[in-house]
């Protein structure tokens, strides 16, 4: 499972901006930053509250386990999670992933799917997930 956290270094490198990300697909979707994130699908869900101020609501199944450094993992997850906070990381590895996030930060996608980022009502970024992990800013 450590591969899921490889993008952390890339996430930490740059600023970002405020916008709305929508992504759907199968594989791995992760986001780190500040704002509101809603994600649904089936697989393994990771959530981390870096600042201690997150509001986390998880519905659906899953075996919840708390890990090191504030990570919470839900294996066998099948449902929806909504997370809001000033410094959060949310990632889902699995299928039927539907991610929507509004705020500032970075997101990483790997697998098969599509995504778009909207700012001030204009789509500023869109594309497809690839087998190589890609990291983007929410502008």
Written account of the structure:
- With 139 residues, this protein is mainly beta.
- The chain contains one helix and five strands.
- It has one helix spanning 8-11; strands at 18-49, 55-66, 71-119, 122-128, 134-138.
- Strand 3 (71-119) and strand 4 form a beta hairpin.
- It is globular, with a radius of gyration of 13 Å.
- The termini are far apart.
- The model is unreliable at 1-16 (pLDDT under 50).
List keywords for this structure.
single chain; 139 residues; mainly beta; five-stranded antiparallel beta sheet; 5 strands; 3% helix; globular; disordered N terminus
Condensed summary:
With 139 residues, the chain is mainly β.
Question: What's the story with the biggest beta sheet?
Answer: 5 strands, antiparallel
Outline, from the CA principal axes?
globular
Beta-strand content: over 45%
Rg, rounded, reads 13 Å
Structural class: mainly beta
Helix tally? 1
Count the strands?
5
Q: Quick check: average pLDDT?
A: 87
How much helix, percentage-wise, in residues? under 10%
What series of H and E elements makes up the topology? HEEEEE
Unreliable stretches (pLDDT < 50, length at least 5) are 1-16
For the termini, the CA-CA separation is: 29 Å
């Amino acid at each position: 499972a450590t591969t899921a956290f490889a993008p952390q270094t890339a996430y930490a490198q740059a600023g970002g901006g405020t916008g709305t990300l929508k992504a759907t697909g199968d594989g791995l979707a992760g986001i780190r930053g500040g704002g509101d994130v809603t994600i649904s699908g089936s697989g393994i869900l990771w959530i981390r509250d870096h600042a201690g101020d997150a509001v986390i609501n998880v519905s659906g199944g899953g075996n919840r386990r708390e890990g090191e450094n504030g990570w919470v993992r839900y294996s066998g997850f099948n449902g929806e999670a909504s997370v809001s906070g000033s410094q959060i990381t949310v990632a889902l590895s699995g299928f039927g992933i539907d991610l929507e996030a509004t705020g500032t930060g970075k997101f990483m996608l790997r697998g098969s799917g599509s995504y778009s980022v909207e700012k001030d009502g204009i789509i500023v970024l869109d594309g497809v997930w690839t087998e190589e992990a890609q990291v983007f800013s929410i502008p």
